[in-house]
Amino acid sequence: MLWDLMQQRQIAQAKQSAAQAASAAGKTQVEIAEMERLIETLALTCQAMWELLREQGKLTDEMLVKRMQEVDLRDGRRDGRIGASATTCSGCSRPNNPRHGHCVYCGAPLPPPQHVFA
Fold this sequence. Notes:
2 domains, mainly alpha, flat, 2 helices, about 60% helix
């Protein structure tokens, strides 16, 4: 009888845990769907803006790619992400991560980081 009570309690706890996990999974699915919708909206907006700029401003795809690479490298890394602006070393003119106080190449002190507002 005691064994049955313990098993019933464990079963109830397992059911409760499963229900909580299902609820969390459902919430996560909704959040993912919303993020996907936002990403699609941003992609559509970026494409429309680029087409307008290209048509009206005589810009080229090559110019866009070059600027994307420049923006990507502002944090000193080519990783496809926007990061903090890289700090340029006054000693060797190489870009450094703004978190460093000294140049990782030549050891010269670095100026304070510049903030990027996107």
